[in-house]
């Protein structure tokens, strides 16, 4: 989702001349009331038939910053869906249109109070409707004046993640918004991209942060024990069940449960999990009564669950239930601008493990790290750095310490001009040093730079004169 699109460029046009657009969502049959109420006013009305359609229209950046929701049905699933839509689009001001009876219902009253800018009752009073719409529009225009404040809310430190590239900024923003609602989330993406970290960040940013966060790898559970691990058992439920045991779902009460590798959950357990997601009750094995548990479920999979559905390995109904909201941390190769920051972060983290004379990465290492495809993503990066810190016997970590051969440079068809200059510079210095028996003064003369500059460049490229001289 590109949030930048949604901010109005206020320098282009004065606020008052912005088009008046309103998005109407909810009960179709009452749409005509809105039409009538806004009949002669200069509002461009668009209708969305469901939450998804509304989200697409808003996401398109078409400036539907003012929306009306016609609240007729008290179905709780509908309110949950609407809550998500509202939370995911804080740039939109929502007006509720309610019939006088519904507004007497406690749940509806609380909901309207919490999530709407204002409410109107049916039948609509045209003057009041236009007045409130205008006020809502002005509020959204005011918040559009300070987009940077809005964007700065999402910081990597808050998320416990490293990386500030635009894709990560968008991920942080989605995490923050998703954290505010209680629906299940499906976290997909390649292995080692940080799916578990994303789950933790959702928990930490959510109102559940003071409750427990429990993670379980569905693929690592012995099949015979899964039922009891997830749902618990009563004393004597099976041979060896010496006493009552709470399952992980119950132990996570008030918090967030992260089900990693959900695709590995056996089909019979998928049925039980679906039941839990629908009614929030658990049945301990051997128990006759259900227990209500308040847990938010986040699930992750690195296998394609849609493919697993086709192969009858994953239930489609469970997939749709889990996939209310989806997040996909990007693979490392799609955010190579973050690599230096991540590498330095982990270098500092592991340097404290033992005193080391290694001071950092050579320029060439950093260059090759940016060019490498990282099939194992951040996990692979961490492992290579840890290995390099053990193997390195120089001040700076070289490509060979990381196991990144120089030939990878040629496997990439694209090299930036800056990278090409860097490589040419390094190669000229190495050649000159070799010609001059590693005498810096002579090489500096030959290359027409000062000795101080050459020392700086030697350091920058991680050239170890002593080692290279001995190798000659
Ligand atoms: N943005 C990030 N910043 C810092 N560390 C990260 C980031 N993303 C991932 N990591 C680290 O990378 C390692 C792998 O992350 P994680 O286990 O969350 O990946 P995953 O996608 O769940 O992998 P898998 O699919 O194999 O379970 C962890 O050590 C994690 O701390």
From TrEMBL:
InterPro entries hit by this protein: AAA+_ATPase (IPR003593), AAA_lid_NorR (IPR058031), Homeodomain-like_sf (IPR009057), P-loop_NTPase (IPR027417), Sigma_54_int (IPR002078), Sigma_54_int_dom_ATP-bd_1 (IPR025662), Sigma_54_int_dom_CS (IPR025944), VpsR (IPR045343)
Keywords, sorted A to Z: ATP-binding, DNA-binding, Nucleotide-binding, Transcription, Transcription regulation
Biological process according to GO: regulation of DNA-templated transcription
Annotated GO MF terms: ATP binding; DNA binding
Entry keyword annotation includes DNA-binding: yes
Membrane in keyword set: no
SMART domains noted in UniProt: AAA
Protein name: DNA-binding transcriptional response regulator, NtrC family, contains REC, AAA-type ATPase, and a Fis-type DNA-binding domains
Organism: Vreelandella arcis
Lineage start: Bacteria, Pseudomonadati, Pseudomonadota, Gammaproteobacteria, Oceanospirillales
């Amino acid at each position: 989702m590109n949030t930048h699109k949604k901010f109005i460029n206020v320098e282009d046009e004065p606020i008052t001349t912005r088009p008046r657009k309103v998005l109407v969502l909810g009960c179709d049959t009452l749409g005509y009331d809105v039409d009538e109420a806004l009949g002669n006013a200069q509002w461009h009305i668009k209708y969305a038939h469901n939450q998804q359609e509304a989200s697409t229209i808003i996401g398109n950046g078409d400036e539907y910053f003012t929306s009306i929701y016609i609240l007729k049905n008290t179905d709780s699933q509908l309110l949950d869906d609407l809550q998500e839509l509202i939370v995911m689009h804080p740039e939109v001001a929502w007006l509720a249109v309610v019939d006088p009876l519904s507004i007497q219902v406690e749940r509806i009253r609380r909901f309207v109070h919490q999530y709407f800018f204002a409410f109107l009752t049916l039948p609509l009073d045209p003057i009041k409707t236009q007045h409130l719409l205008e006020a809502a529009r002005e509020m959204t225009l005011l918040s559009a004046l300070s987009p940077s404040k809005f964007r700065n809310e999402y910081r990597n430190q808050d998320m416990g993640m490293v990386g500030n590239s635009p894709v990560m900024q968008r991920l942080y923003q989605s995490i923050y918004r998703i954290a505010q609602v209680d629906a299940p989330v499906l976290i997909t993406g390649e292995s080692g991209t940080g799916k578990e970290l994303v789950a933790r960040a959702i928990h930490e940013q959510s109102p559940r942060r003071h409750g427990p966060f429990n993670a379980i790898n569905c693929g690592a559970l012995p099949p015979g024990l899964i039922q009891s691990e997830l749902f618990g058992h009563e004393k004597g439920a099976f041979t060896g069940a010496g006493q009552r045991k709470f399952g992980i779902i119950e132990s996570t009460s008030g918090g967030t449960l992260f089900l990693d590798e959900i695709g590995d959950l056996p089909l019979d357990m998928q049925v039980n999990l679906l039941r839990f997601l629908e009614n929030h009750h658990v049945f301990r094995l051997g128990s006759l009564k259900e227990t209500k548990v308040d847990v938010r479920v986040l699930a992750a999979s690195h296998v394609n669950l849609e493919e697993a559905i086709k192969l009858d390995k994953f239930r489609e109904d469970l997939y749709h239930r889990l996939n209310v909201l989806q997040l996909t941390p990007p693979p490392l190769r799609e955010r190579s601008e973050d690599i230096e920051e991540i590498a330095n972060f982990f270098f500092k983290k592991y340097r404290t493990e033992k005193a080391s004379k290694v001071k950092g990465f050579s320029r060439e290492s950093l260059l090759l790290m940016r060019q490498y495809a990282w099939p194992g993503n951040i996990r692979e990066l961490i492992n290579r750095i840890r290995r390099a810190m053990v193997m390195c016997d120089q001040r700076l970590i070289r490509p060979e310490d990381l196991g990144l051969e120089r030939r990878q440079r040629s496997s990439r068809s694209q090299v930036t001009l800056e990278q090409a200059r860097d490589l040419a510079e390094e190669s000229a210095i190495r050649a000159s040093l070799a010609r001059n028996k590693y005498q810096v003064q002579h090489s500096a003369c030959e290359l027409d730079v000062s000795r101080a500059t050459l020392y700086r460049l030697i350091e920058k490229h991680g050239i170890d004169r002593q080692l290279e001289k001995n190798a000659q």
